Model the fold of this input.
Amino acid sequence: MEEKNMTDEIKALNLNSDEEVVKTPESTAIPATTTQATPRPMVTADPKKKLLMILAIVLLGIGSGYGIYSFKSPKTPKKLATEATGEVVAGDTFGVMDEDAFRDTAEGEMASGGIGDEGSHHLIREGGESKYVYLTSSIIDLDQFVGKSVKVWGETFGAQQAGWLMDVGRLEVK
Done:
C-alpha cells in the first residue's frame, strides 16, 4: 500500500509517464532517468601565453640547475690555465688550481715519451727508470714543460707496462 502512495506521489510531481520507477532495497521509488551530458566547449589558451609559460619553465630549470651546480663540491676548477703564454718560469701553475682536487702527486724532470702505448711523457726521478712516472693529460699540453722540473697532481691509472701511470690535472713549475 505504501508503494502505491509513493508511486502516486512521484507521478504527481509532473514526471513523464514514460519514466520507469526503480525500486531500491529500502522500497523507495526513484525515477530512472537518463541524462545526457552536454559537451562543454573546449577552452584553449592563447599560443603566446603558452610559449611564455614554456619559456619561463625552461629558464627556471636552467637557473636552478646553475644554482645547484655553483654550490657543488669545491673540486670544481677555480682557474684553468692549460698553455703557457710566454716563457715558463718557476712558480707558474697550470690546469685545475684546486690542489685538493687530485689525490696523487709526483715531482721530477719532465721528459717526452711514454712506455709502449702508455703515457705521452714521463717524470725522471731519483732511483732510475723503475721510479719514472708516466704521464698523460687531457687538459694540459705537457710538451711545453719538457726539460723543466715540475710537480704534478693527478689520478693514477692501472697500467700494463708502466710502473706508475698518471693523468695530470695540475702542474706547477719548480
Residues 47-70 form the longest helix (24 residues). The two ends are 113 Å apart (CA to CA). The helical segments are 2-12, 47-70. The mean pLDDT is 78.
